[in-house]
Amino acid sequence: MRFILACLLSVSLLSASNIKYLGSDLQSNGDLEAEFNTQNSENLFDPLSGYNEIMTSINDHFYEYLLRPTAQGYAYIVPEMARHGVSNFFENLFFPIRFVNNLLQLKLHNSWEETERFVLNSTMGILGFRDVAGEELGIKAHDEDLGQTLGYYGVGSGFHVVLPLLGPSNVRDIVGLVGDAWLNPINYINDNDPDLFNSSGESLAVTAFYIVNKTSLHVKEYDSFKKDAIELYPFLRNAYESRRNKLISE
Amino acid sequence: MKRIFTLLLLSLLCTSPAMALEEQNISSFMQTNIDLATTILRDKKIQKTERSEKLFAIFDLIFDYNLMAQLAIGGKQWSSLAPEKQVEFTKLFEMKLKNSYMEKLDLYTDEKIVIKNLEKIKDTRIHLTTHLMKNSEVYEIIYKFYKDKNGSWMIYDVDILGVSIIQTYRTQFADILAKEPFENLLERLKKPDELTPKKQ
């Protein structure tokens, strides 16, 4: 009897240690598996993957060796409050992009709130340096761009494209970027010719300033986010596409 | 004798921890734990290692790391692995998740986290939506629960701003395994900072 008990006991101990890893989890997880299978890389259409991988690593080097040091140097000189102000100023400037795209998606209430924000922040917020509407009245920005508008009307994302300097994108969002560029006030600085391809050096400098300022406020987040990557390209591709889908669905 | 057998049988059935998280308790349980976690995070006197130990003690109860590892590598790949490799992978993956979480702790200042909504997707799935508020911005974090075979609700995925943690790992693992053998993946998981060495 003791022998049988000992056998039973050892069996029970064995199964207790194994069950954690080899239990019946797998069979019952069929639908959990299915939940994640939609984006499996086997059926993912990624014709530019070779180029994308190279461009991802170029962009990564650009960030590591140029953008981040610049942003950190800039952050060292300019206090955080001022940088938030600059960031607010630019976000206020991009009002036309948000306004038009909210309108195009028939989000009339959001367009109205955007207008309120623009008027309030441009006046009481001193040219948009302070986000009065958001802080005092709780009127939040409704970030919409043409890529999201196209997605809203059912345009598929197309394949993934990593842009130089700008990073992850896809066919739909590139079309959106080009469209939004016409609404971006920065592209009209010192420029009487509405042809964007003749865009002046000043516009580029301002855009660079905007990016450095924005990066300086998010250096830690970027770094921590990137640390999660084991393989950078698929990591960023998945994060970008999921995030865009979420934004479109909102 | 019969009693011994019933006892043995019972012990066999109860190999999992006794605590079972019930559906109606998810919101309050999570709110309590989130509050507890933020209190621990705010207490700057606690050492970093001690802090993470305390936090993991909370999260170990509700995160099903084994299932998360299986989902991250994919069912097909998982079942093709030898049992000891499954164990090794699961352990490394759990460490990776925790390390990445610890990194995030450094970023924590005094954001407020509130529970917004609990939605039952189907009989065995619940999504708990929380909002993290920082500098007047709102970040949406969704904890995805499933009902395990003991009837307890466990987290199998976290969705941050629309990006599923498991899906991110899944695409990366699939990409790596398409080019390299499984052993390389294990090696990479062992060296979390290989890809982005500290440059300063």
TrEMBL record, chain A:
Coiled coil: none annotated. Transmembrane segments: none annotated. One of its GO terms (cellular component) is membrane. Residues 1-16 form the signal peptide. InterPro entries: MlaA. Pfam families: MlaA. It comes from the Bacteria. One of its GO terms (biological process) is intermembrane phospholipid transfer. Keywords: Lipoprotein, Signal. Belongs to the MlaA family. This is Outer membrane lipoprotein. It comes from Sulfurospirillum diekertiae.
From TrEMBL, chain B:
Gene3D superfamilies: Tgt2/MlaC. Pfam families: MlaC. InterPro entries: MlaC/ttg2D, Tgt2/MlaC_sf. PANTHER family: INTERMEMBRANE PHOSPHOLIPID TRANSPORT SYSTEM BINDING PROTEIN MLAC. This is ABC transporter substrate-binding protein.
